[in-house]
Amino acid sequence: MVRVSERLLLVLVPAAALASVDLFVKANVPTASWAFHHRSDSWIALCLGLLLGTGFLSVVPSASVAVAGGVMSAGVLGNLVSARWDGNSVPNPLLFSHGGFTVAYNLADVFFLVGNLLLMTTLAIEVVRHRDRLAAARSRLPL
């Protein structure tokens, strides 16, 4: 079984590595002036809280939950660092266009969405896998 400290590394390593890739792309791919999204101080506080909360995922006895949390954290960290670097504006150098419709995004956005989907999936799998423990704990609750 993987220990909590090892699972914490499974959160931190993917977060740092993928956030670095995102920041490299943001630094090297030009961004149109309209493709910067301003972020508030409240958004920054929410990101910090989310990063702190994701660290607590290492308590869940699942390596896959920890890695999924790391991928999601990469998105939060990449956008948080770039926002602070650019005066609370996040650059979105990647464009997807279809017809007259254009979406500007960055790799951190992709990491957050994919990580969130992975995290919800892995947590659901863990709940189903250990449903007997949940039923036993539930039976001890006062009604």
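(the above was protein one; protein two follows)
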Amino acid sequence: MRRAALAAAAALALAGCGGSAPDAAAPATVFAAASLTGLVGELMPEARVNLGGSDELATQLREGAAADLFLSASARHPEELHEEGVVDEPVPFATNRLVLIVPAGEAAIAGLDDVTRPGTRLVVGGEGVPVGDYTRRTLAALGREDLLDRVVSNEKDAKGVVGKVALGEADAGFAYATDARAAGGRVRAVELPAHEGVAIVYAGAVVSASARRDEARALLRLLTGPEGRAALERAGFGLP
């Protein structure tokens, strides 16, 4: 049913441009945050997907990269691109939360205080990367910016953080709860103390210059509709 709907949208897009646009029958190109890897693969198997840090993808779009739909781990990037006329108005579609992750067999780190021990190697997302910005804002809200003194590596996305911890190249890291869950037991998630003011909201937007706007809109409707919401919840995301 989903494939039929997307095929119909692609046909409409082709008819609307008189069938003369180059590669009009090709699948839509989706630029998606790395933390959406499994979800996009499940819901949009026909799409061409470019995965990466949301800030990096936003830069590529700003520089004219060909894409049809942008799915960001931060509402800020699509909002900025919308103000610049690069994408249509963003639509929030999911929420997430930050957790402290440690290697699966690591029992010595049970909370933030344990990260302060001498020799502890902490990995985080880089500044400007959504997971890195969320980490710094969360630590500021908790009054624990001292933990940043333990940082040995700044990664370009949450997948990089999880990879370093899973491989034992770091003792702890901050990542999305969904990435910790998707790691399949290679890392253990430690919940953070309750705090206010740091909302992790994912947003999607159709690229304004897209030649497949109808198909891109159909993909975004799929993500925000019943099937997409069910898949998001199965993956551990919250709903906006």
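Reviewer note on protein two: The chain is about 40% helix and 20% strand.
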